[in-house]
Amino acid sequence: MAGILTAATLALASGAMAQLLNCAEVPQCPIPNTLSQCRVDGRLMTAIGVGNFSSAISQSPLTWTVTYSMALDATAVDERRYYLGYPPELDIQALPSVSSCALFFTGIEAGLSFVKDGDTRQKGPTPGTCDDALGTTCVADLMKQAQGLATSNQDCTTLAQMLQVAPPTSCTGAGNWGNIVAMPLNGSTPVQTTDCHPTSNSTYELASVALFPELFPHDYFNDVTPLMTVFMPSANDTGDTVTSGLSVPEVHLNCMKPLNVVSNYQVVDSGTVPGTEIAMALVFLMVGLQGLSWLA
Ligand SMILES: *[C@@H]1O[C@H](CO)[C@@H](O)[C@H](O)[C@H]1NC(C)=O
Ligand SMILES: *[C@@H]1O[C@H](CO)[C@@H](O)[C@H](O)[C@H]1NC(C)=O
Ligand SMILES: *[C@@H]1O[C@H](CO)[C@@H](O)[C@H](O)[C@H]1NC(C)=O
Ligand SMILES: *[C@@H]1O[C@H](CO)[C@@H](O)[C@H](O)[C@H]1NC(C)=O
Predict the structure, then answer these.
(1) CA 137, 48, 281: angle at the middle one, nearest 5?
(2) Chain segment 177-227, per-residue pLDDT in tens
(3) In the chain, what are the domain boundaries?
(4) How far is the CA of 236 from the centre of ligand 4 (A)?
(5) What would the mean pLDDT of 284-294 be, rounded to a whole number?
(6) ∠ at Cα 88 (85, 90), nearest 5°?
(7) How many CB atoms lie within 10 A of CB 55?
(8) Residue 169 Cα, ligand 1 centroid: separation in angstroms?
(9) Residue 55 C-alpha to ligand 2 middle, in angstroms?
(10) pLDDT confidence band for 235 (50 / 70 / 90)
(11) How far is CA 278 from the centre of its chain?
């Protein structure tokens, strides 16, 4: 499949096909079900999902982590938080030389799932890609639209507004877009982590980018949030590959969802056997736990 795509298409669609990783699949992420604790920004996380993408501004891939934390009492609500993971050699505070945005498609998230047509498994444990959630045509149209808008060097808020008011018709089948929330990335500061470090590379910094409390009671855990990362060379940067590594805008799309650790049950289905007995036991434990949560 990749063979028939041009290099340009591949760069543009970076992230759209990337698989999300769960807590068991990244280093330094204690699995909450084992009663280990992972606190990020002071909140105990219930589950995480980690996506990645490659950018010209960084030699190593960047990551997005969504964490889910449960309300601890009746006055609180569940929360999803988002962290950008980046290698320590990338100076995130220097990003103003590149206009950088994270666009959270929060209006549509409750209407999206990774379940493919004809898949009888439940919505919850299934990992997936933006192609699964939005459809390949919508993903392609949306990336093209964003690329076009970013080329005229919009600021983050303007870009979000323009994408919000006129979604591609191939995308409106899933419902109205609703809100798109824009967050600039250059203002982010790294968070301190102690007992866990939920990203795919333990050397990476994690910058807190956004926090979304549950706004209305629903199955918030299983919402799928399209997250678009846009890097736009600033006017002074155009054509200058020294300053930022960017000469044209980059658009990346990840579809984010916290994953139960059991989500790799698909590995078991496909007959791929984990390497050690401990890993095997863990998989069975996870399947067992998932069985319980299906009953609940
Ligand atoms: C993202 O991570 C996966 C799993 O570790 C890896 O196979 C893939 O190459 C990565 N993609 C990018 C764009 O870095
Ligand atoms: C982790 O990131 C560093 C760059 O900070 C890179 O050199 C290293 O290869 C990465 N490790 C893995 C396992 O991807
Ligand atoms: C982020 O970049 C924008 C645009 O260059 C700039 O106006 C803003 O002050 C920057 N914010 C921080 C915290 O550096
Ligand atoms: C960018 O260029 C404009 C006009 O040439 C100039 O006023 C501004 O100071 C420049 N900004 C930076 C960060 O170099």
Answers:
(1) 110
(2) 889 999 988 877 788 877 788 999 999 999 999 999 999 999 899 999 999
(3) 2-259, 264-296
(4) 6
(5) 34
(6) 85
(7) 22
(8) 30
(9) 15
(10) low
(11) 29
- Please say whether the beta carbons of 209 and 183 come within 8 A: yes
Q: What is the C-alpha separation between 182 and 162, in angstroms, rounded? A: 11
Q: Which atom of ligand 1 is nearest to the CA of 61?
A: 14
Split at pLDDT 50, 70, 90, the class of 176 is confident
Query: Are 65 and 199 in contact, with CB atoms under 8 Å apart?
Result: yes
The predicted model scores a pTM of 0.79
Cα gap 281→157, rounded to integer Å: 48
Q: How far is CA 72 from CA 30, 46, 76, in A?
A: 20, 11, 7
**Least distant ligand from the CA of 63:** 1
pLDDT value at residue 53: 95
User: Tokens 């799932």, residue?
Assistant: 113
Instruction: Please give the distance, rounded to the nearest whole angstrom, from the Cα atom of residue 148 to the centre of ligand 4.
Output: 24
As a whole number of angstroms, the distance between CA 16 and CA 19 comes to: 9
pLDDT confidence of residue 138: 94
Element (H or E) spanning 287, and its range?
Answer: helix 277-295
Q: Is the CB of 203 under 6 A from ligand 2?
A: yes
Q: Which ligand 3 atom is nearest residue 97's CA?
A: 5
Residue 208 neighbours by CB under 8 Å, 6+ apart: 41, 81, 82, 83, 188, 189, 191
Looking from the CA of residue 201, the nearest atom of ligand 2 is: 1
- Which residue is closest in CA terms to ligand 3's atom 7? 96
Nearest residue to 229 (alpha-carbon basis) of 138, 99, 94: 99
> Residue 240: exposed, middle, or buried by beta-carbon count in 10 A (0-12, 13-18, 19+)?
middle
